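Listing S7. Sequence submitted for prediction.
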Amino acid sequence: MRTVHTFLASLALVLSTVIGGALLAAPASAHEERAAGFPDGKGKVPAYLGLTNARNKVVCTPSSKKLIAAMPQGSLKTRNQKLLKTCGYSSIQDAVNAIKKSNTSIYVLPGTYYETKYANSKPTGYCATIKTASKDPLGVGQYIGSLTGEQPPEYGDGPIALSYPDQYRCPHNLNLIALLGDSTPQDDSIHCNNAMCGTQIVGTGRTPKDVVIDNKFSKLNGIRADRVSGIYLRNFTIQQAEFNSVYVLETDGFVVDKIVARGNDEYGILAFASDHGLIQDVDAYFNGDSGIYPGSASDLNADSKTTAVKRYAVEIRNSKSHHNTLGYSGTAGNSVYAHHNQFYDNATGIATDSLFPGHPGLPQDHARWSNNEVFRNNENFYTRFVDTGICAKPMKDRGYINGTVCPVVPTPVGTGTLIAGGNYNLTDNNHIYDNWRFGTMQFWVPAPLRDEFDPGKLFDTSHGNQVFKNVMGIKPDGTVAHNGMDHWWDDQGIGNCWENNTSSRGKPTNNFLIDPGACAGGGSGLLPGLVVKDAGFLTCSQYDRADPIWRHPPLCNWFDSPTKPTNTRVEGLLGGLFGPPKG
């Protein structure tokens, strides 16, 4: 067994000679935001109030009458006809601004909403001077993550992250539709304390595609719900944002239900530093980062040194996320329970990590992915769109709504699930198949990558992860669809185990140097990550789609398209410095 001293010497050599000092800075993050904190956890998941809430505002377009008339006969059409008679707004934001009492429903009738008044608004007065004259400025050190290089022109001249007081003063600097629930921004509380609490925005059509909110890249975010406990978003499509279509931040109690989130530069649905959340029946696609992102969910189980949890902060169920760089991702995606979902036709299906600095709750811990289908995650958007120059075009000209995906983060193409530095996670009872590189992948992330320089924390990931009772390389109908390799691991960590998984090849294939042992027996012992495996990750982490060198980091093979596996061919024995075997 290699000693820690030998490993550290080898790692230092890798960092200095292979990467040439690039890791002195953390990898680029796609998530640029103010420093955030967790709610106190006293909230609850809100209940849907239906289409008959007496406390309501009704929004419609000139085409709503015709669209409702075309609906089939039935109670839903009748209800829409009644709501149409009371329509008082043509703008969703205007309806939000008119809310006087909490638990108000905003009924959005069929049609397409551009929110032109807010989309075309330019900052004036104080809001035009935030970059240089903010009363509550954010220093660079307060940002979560950082963008590499120069700020992209799409973001304009102002800062792309604001303090909460500045968000409250200037809600449309960055957001098409903004709900801000804390009307006392100067105190230390992040509680929702105004009429926005409990707001429900509900599309009244038969399907989510009957109501479309199109940001057309006019603002950074489509809908921002910031400190809005009890927010409920249901039954509409939202599209074409530079950052997020749906953004929930520092909120205790939220539901995102039957939402289509598509064609965004970065995220479809992003929940951050929030608790008591439910994301269900959503369809997320054509997003440059992830379709669904439950990052820095409340770290409820941080003190548990087993996989046992008090409860989960965010639940994701019955959803589809496909044709994104990542189907699901979450830096510090703590206490998240994702089950009965489909993650397919992405570059990577599911990923969680401890890579990016500033996210509350690092290192990541205590997620569970159970009873999902994770399949066919082999889409290579790096070669298709980054290498061909499409992603260098102005954002509006890239064709996101038609299927262009411009990856803003690095991920190994052809991978089902990925734990990039995480602890005490459960991956169980899933069908993981037809992922041409790896079915599951797990590796250690050195703490300095998240700006944690305490030597005692260098090896604080990945420990206590359990992968069990998964069906590898076999579809639910029994058809064989091999993974390139079922399980890839860099040998790092205490308490990791893989057991009772079935495979299309009889015995699950893996690259383990030493059998980690049974879960009941404590799993793996401390075996620092194998340098020849981890070095590839360390260079890949420096990916930058805007940089002609770092869009393909040296010695990184993650962006190479893996070959379709066969019965005898196993993909990527090491998967780090070395490419897949030939033949």
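Caption to Listing S7: primary sequence and predicted structure tokens for the chain studied. Residues 23 and 227 are 35 Å apart (CA to CA). The longest strand covers residues 252-264.
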